[in-house]
Design brief:
Length: 344
Amino acid sequence: MWSRDRAALFWTFFLPLVIMVIFGLLNFGELGKVDVGIVDQAQNEASARLVAKLTAVESLRITAGSEPAEQAALSDGQRDLVIILPEGFGDSQEPATVRALYHGSRTGESQVGLSILQSGIDAMNFAITGAERVVTLESRAVAARDLGYIDFLMPGVIGMAIMQLGLFSVAFSFVTMKREGVLRRLLATPLNPATLLVAQVITRLIVVVAQTIILAAVAVFLFGAEFAGNFFAVLLAAGLGGAVFLALGFAVSGWARTEQQAAPLANIVSLPMMFLSGVFFSRDVLPDILQTVTDYLPLTYLVEAIRGMTVQGDSIFTQWPNFLGLAVWLVVAFVIANRTFRWE
């Protein structure tokens, strides 16, 4: 039944590929902020003022942490610049040197951050002595992974494709079969209803695996995306996410009587997640309340799990919170589908 639906096959594979190619070519990542990590060893009023001044700059995205953690983030390509404020920073009696480690392959972002930092230090020197440089800046390039927008985009598009397949293919196909009486006729045959459902699920999970392989191959070989993690772990996450959205698709098909009812309901479920779960753009740009809400969406768990494994090289055990979130959603979606699904 699935292989005979040529239109469904076409859109299942073609649309995610088109999105991957378009966003890969446009490279929206070039429009992002400068990621700056700050290590405040001084912990005094002067360092707090400088951190507050840098945080107020809209073009900078500030993260505070320990020196080992921020240097590791810089090496992994998650920071463009790491600023280390030494003990005694801002003391008018003792000179201090601020160290700045910047991404050697991202000179544009690094220079923006260094220029803003130098302006802040110059203003501090003027306030302290009027002219003498009590605080100096020492910068050094660091060899690091050069992650691009395509590295961020690939897990998002994979997750989106899995969601679309699970929701729309199941919802529309089962609603159509119910409306045309196909399911009623199948129940009159020796075919066990459980066999039909299991076949539908297995078929679509196979398509999920194929989708994931194709989209990852296009991102890696056509656009040069990096794949740092274990590919089989990514396929496991994709399969678990596929099961969640298949269950949600069965729930939609059980509630809707016609395709006209199924379409808006499936869109109500999918569209907010598509734009709020970090598919195309980072969730860091969202208001805090929206970030908190979207933390618990099934697509967020799926995309974050895949992104953690492909970009950061995380293992399944490192990503256990996201796998646990998907497992909880699978139980919830199964219960909803079990209560709403009808054969007629």
